[in-house]
Amino acid sequence: MAVSTRRLQKELTEITTAGTPCGITLLKADDFQTWFLTLEVLGESLYQGEVFALMFRFDSQYPISSPAVQFVNDETYQPPIHPHVYSNGHICASILGSEWSPVLSVIAVCITLQSMLASCKDKTRPPDNDRYVAHAPDNPKKTRFVYHDDEV
Amino acid sequence: MEDVPDPTDFPPNDIAPGLRELDEALRCTICGDLFSGPLSVACGHCFCSLCIRTQLNVKAECPLCRKSTTEFHLRKVQSIEDAVQAWKIARPYILQLSRDEVQRRLQFAEARAALQDVSTRSPKKRRRNPSLNDDDEVIEIIKPTSKMNGQRSGLSPADSSGSSTPQSVSCPVCQKQVPMAKINQHLDDGCKSPTPIEFEVGSSTTNNKGKQKQDWQKLFGAAESSTGSKGKGKAKSNSKSKLEPSATPIPKVAYHTLKEKRLREMLSDHDLPTTGDKDTLIRRHERWVLVYNANLDRNPRDRETLEELIRKLKKWEDTRGGKKIGVGDVKAYEKANKVVFAGLIEAARPKKPPPKPQQDDPEHDNIEQQRITEATDDPSEIQVPISSSPGSSVPPVTEDEQTGMPVDG
Predict the structure, then answer these.
(1) Which residue of A102, B47, B189, B319 shows the fewest CB atoms closer than 10 Å?
(2) What is residue B182's predicted lDDT score, i.e. its pLDDT?
(3) Are B48 and B37 in contact (CB under 8 A)?
(4) B303 and B336 share a domain?
């Protein structure tokens, strides 16, 4: 079995036996290519009562290479309005790009994104949203984001 | 789905204190498997040799604490390797014990409940209930949830404590069927016994081990004929043997200075296929250096044979290795998508001087400007000037909180 499959199998086992942290649930993990999880910010925040869905796409190099993570944008789920989340669901977060580490996991990414939403003070789209979304590649990993803002 | 051993195989702490933690502590945080050839980095964190060597090629920092570290800091951690070796042997046994314990408790609880039901009427029942804890019954109840358990559930504690029935069990490490009396010896030998350690492929024909070797050979036959590698049967037969304990690591190579011919020579020195373009050759050699050196980081008795390494290399190449992540051939990609890019550039142009709402963030403007120029230079990637919190999952502190400055002056 490939390393990526073994590793994902372990993560799945842990999710099913030990459960997921508060506000995070596993929606669909039928294979080891694409997983869906739901994310919800608990407690006081600008996103109270909103439920989002995250799509994870893994390549055979996982966990050495990062998963492609984005918010789902369909009839059921819409991406949150956040300065680092584009309206097509792409997320500009350094841990999904240059700051990815192979010891991180699906759940660790979810927790980080949850805290990114929880600490949001200004519910706006990124300033260049329209321009980016018009040209965005399907896979957010092909976008070279520039991380200049470590405040939010 | 194949069952993958995991710390959660063990019961939680209230039943088996510390076992999950112990199992977790002996696992690499990158691959999640028990350490294979554990190496420590500058900060002291420990990873499988292949995992950390691969990762250091990507980024020269510790994956756990992000302290910078390089290949020169890698040190073998012998005691961890010994601990893992022992744990591999002890794990199935302890797993069985702990599962028996769970069952025992469950039955005890059931028995007590039953006892409470009837105790008022017939106090004699009390004496009969402990018989439920009989080992035989325990074994019958356990459901085999995995391959390993399946075999183990057939083996009662009485067997493991010394009966000499010629039963065969599957090795928890290599999954091979091994006579039970020889399982410990088999594990001690790093899964090489019961057949004597072989130095030549195909020299053995004994029992199931021989069969597996044959399978390999089939694979190799296929691999070699498909890649058309010649160079067999030359004076390289000795490199076909198990790695010598004294073998030395292959030094890193500065590939960009090498001619393709030299690359092919280097590959054929190791009996590797020499097909493919230069990029493929480089990636193949690079991967070979990784797996070869990682193999040397293991105890000599745990090392894989060169054939096994080559087989894995081929598998790696078939599944992904041949290709780079993302856009493989940039030039071809650019050519194929020329029309799309032209359209994009055209679409981006009129927007260049948009009616700017006044902004007090000059740095931001600069970056946006830069984005536009870069997008025209290299249309295969789009750059976006927004970012987010770095690695930590701790909510970042805003400047206001940090300084405690009143917003209003």
Answers:
(1) B319
(2) 78
(3) yes
(4) no
- In this predicted structure, the answer to whether residue B2 has a pLDDT above a threshold of 70 is no
Element (H, E) at B85: helix B78-118
**Shared domain check, B342 and B315:** no
Phi and psi at B178, nearest 5°, equal -135, 140
In a domain, residue B73? The reply is no
> What is the number of domains present in chain B?
2
Which residues in chain B are closer than 8 Å to A13, comparing Cβ atoms?
A: 4, 6, 8
C-beta contacts of B390-395 below 8 A and 24+ residues apart = B390/A94, B390/A95, B390/A99, B390/A147, B390/A150, B391/A94, B391/A95, B391/A99, B391/A101, B391/A112, B391/B66, B392/A112, B393/A108, B393/A111, B393/A112, B393/A115, B394/A115, B395/A115, B395/A118, B395/A119
**8 Å CB contact of B64 and A144:** no
Residue B91 has pLDDT above 90, yes or no: yes
B33 contacts A102? CB cut-off 8 A:
no
If one compares B171 and B322, the residue with the highest pLDDT of the two is B171
Q: Establish if B226 belongs to a structural domain.
A: yes
The average pLDDT across B92-105 equals 91
**Domain end (from B321, B345, B369):** B321
Which residues form the domain of B352?
330-403
CATH of the domain at A129: 3.10.110.10
B284 in Cβ contact with B276 (< 8 Å) = yes
From A22, A92, A110, A120, the catalytic residue: A92
In a domain, A147, yes or no: no
Count CB-CB contacts under 10 A for residue B392: 12
Which structural domain, as residue segments, surrounds residue A9? 3-141
Mean per-residue pLDDT for B126-153? 46
Same domain, yes or no, for B266 and B363? no
Q: How many residues does chain B have?
A: 409
Task: From B321, B353, B379, give the residue that closes a domain.
Answer: B321
Residues of chain A below pLDDT 50? none
Question: Is residue A146 situated within a structural domain?
Answer: no
The reported pTM is: 0.60
| B285 within domain boundaries | yes
pLDDT at B232 over 70: no
Instruction: Indicate whether B287 and B363 sit together in one domain.
Output: no
Record the tokens describing residue B363, joined without a space. Answer: 């740095």
CA dist., res. B368 & res. B360, Å (int): 14
Q: Are residues B260 and B337 in the same domain?
A: no
Q: What is the DSSP letter of A12?
A: H
Q: What is the pLDDT of residue B189?
A: 77
Using DSSP, state whether B183 is helix, strand or coil.
helix
What residues 25-44 of chain A have any CB closer than 8 A to a CB of chain B? none
Residue A121 lies inside a defined structural domain of this protein: yes
B310 within domain boundaries: yes
B407-to-A141, B200, B399, B400, B404 alpha-carbon distances in Å: 38, 77, 11, 8, 9
Would the CB atoms of B388 and A103 count as touching at under 8 Å?
A: no
Q: To which H or E segment does residue A51 belong?
A: strand A51-57
Domain count, chain A: 1
Flag whether pLDDT at B199 surpasses 70.
Answer: no
Q: Which of residues 273-332 of B touch A (CB under 8 A)?
A: 319-320, 325-327
